[in-house]
Amino acid sequence: MITRRRMVGGLTVGALTVPVIAGAQQRPAQPARPPARTAPAAAPEPTQLPNGYPWISTAAQFAYVVDFDTGRVLLDKGGNTRMFPSSMTKMMTAFLVFEKLARGELQMTDTLTVSQRAWRQGGSKMFVEVNTRVSIENLLRGIIVHSGNDACIVLAEGLAGSEEAFAELMNRKAAELGMVGTQYRNSMGWPDPDHWTTPRDLVVLAEQTIRRFPQYYSIYAEREFRWGNMAPQPNRNPLLGMAGQGADGLKTGSTEASGYGITASSVRDGRRVILVINGTNSLRQRGEEAARLMDFAFTQFENVTLFRPGESVTEAAVWQGESRTVSLVASQPLRVTIPRRVRRDIAVKAVFDEPIAAPIEKGQRVGSLVITAPTVETVELPLVAGADVERLGPIGRVGSAVSHFVFGRR
Predict the structure, then answer these.
(1) In sequence order, what are the beta bridge partners of 262?
(2) What pLDDT score does 294 carry?
(3) Closest CA to 65 of 259, 340, 272
(4) 161: buried, middle or exposed (CB in 10 Å: 19+, 13-18, 0-12)?
(5) Using the 8-state DSSP alphabet, how is residue 39 labeled?
(6) Closest C-alpha to 262, from 202, 319, 347
(7) What pLDDT is recorded for position 72?
(8) Residue 214: how many CA atoms within 13 Å on its side-chain side?
(9) pLDDT (tens digit per residue) in 171-219
């Protein structure tokens, strides 16, 4: 049998969506120093980088934007640089409570006592009263909607004995989640020179919150919360009130040292994007920059499903099999996030040797799928047999060989 290498190009591809593609475009890293309150004025930047990858300038000192489904980084400005998270810290406090609720170690109706320390804590508050007991459900809303520092201390003391012990639990969980650039010193984000994180780590925390706790994540979308006799306090997330944003979480933060920041998530037409910005100089600028970068992510990029598991790609000739051909299929789903303008430039090739000698087992690797597109790294996936093909019996094999050499048939 003589085999030949065959490359089939111009394959029909379904709607587009991307897997986590390495080598996402990055801007040069920022120096490892605490952020200034006001980001320095930036010179106008091009709308795309030299390689054609979309880019947008931002007044935020830090910006990190990621596609939720594929993990592709769409914008990276200091993504791995240490910064002060301020009240975005409270996402981890809520995460640990969600985890205990999901495990059945805690109930929403359980109550915890408000200590003097919690009651006296400054900054943003839920306004819980000293020596009263407050339910876990209300404390969570006090943290997420009100950004209450007092609520954070009540939970930290009630669940770990002290805020310092709770911070150790936060650090262990951060390490478990792969948040390698994070160190916590308290449950609320109160200023501390040894309390830091990175934009990338906050995206990791947001993504894990959304994936693991959909039953609790909806609290982040609540627009306001009334506690006791107090007037309702609005959610500080500015995107929740903006028409067309599709925002459903997560958390804002601001201190003198960090400036104004937000970790946010939005869904439009079934596609979710997570962003982190920090180091803007006002509430207004934070909201404007978050909205601009969300629009950038949704308008400049799209998700494309190239192949689904078991989807037929092409056919290959079979040598001495009960079937003359076998369908070749994609072994796994392939979703990619790509700049919208390169959709028509995606090239898919099936590379394999044929004829393929029988017997052939369904799922047997017989070649590769090679996918290329401008600004996207080449992806290679296994191409496998879509069906079993039994080998012909002795007489059939002789007849097949004769037909092949005399008539050119297999």
Answers:
(1) 252, 277
(2) 98
(3) 272
(4) exposed
(5) P
(6) 202
(7) 92
(8) 1
(9) 999 999 999 999 999 999 999 999 999 999 999 999 999 999 999 999 9
CB proximity list for 303: less than 8 A, separation 6 or greater? 16, 17, 18, 67, 69, 70, 271, 335, 336, 337
Range(s) within the chain of domains with CATH label 2.60.410.10: 4-17+308-407
Measured distance CA(60)–CA(294) in Å, rounded: 13
pLDDT at 53: 79
> Do the beta carbons of residue 261 and residue 280 sit within 8 Å?
yes
Q: Which residue in 124, 147, 266, 327 is the catalytic one?
A: 147
Cα–Cα distance measured from residue 118 to residue 150, given in angstroms and rounded to the nearest whole number: 5
- Below-50 pLDDT ranges, the chain: 12, 14-46, 397-399, 402, 405-407
Domain 4-17+308-407 belongs to what topology?
Answer: Peptidoglycan synthesis regulatory factor (PBP3), Domain 2 (2.60.410)
- CA distances to 27, 60, 90, 171, 203 from 187, in Å: 31, 25, 6, 11, 18
- Between CA 257 and CA 61 the distance in angstroms is 12
From the list 87, 115, 187, 327, the catalytic residue is 87
Q: How far apart are alpha carbons 78 and 51 in whole angstroms? A: 20
pTM for the complete prediction? 0.80
Q: Tokens at residue 162, please?
A: 């002290």
- Give the separation between CA 326 and CA 173, rounded to whole angstroms: 49
Catalytic residue among 77, 90, 125, 173: 90
Which tens digits make up the pLDDT trace of 367-387?
Answer: 998 988 887 778 888 899 999
Radius of gyration of the chain (CA): 27
Ramachandran assignment for 252, one of left (phi > 0), alpha (psi -120 to 50 degrees), beta (any other): beta
CATH no., domain 62-299: 3.40.710.10
Can 125 be counted among the known catalytic residues?
no
β-pairing, 271-280 vs 259-268, is antiparallel
pLDDT at position 148 is 97
147 in active site = yes
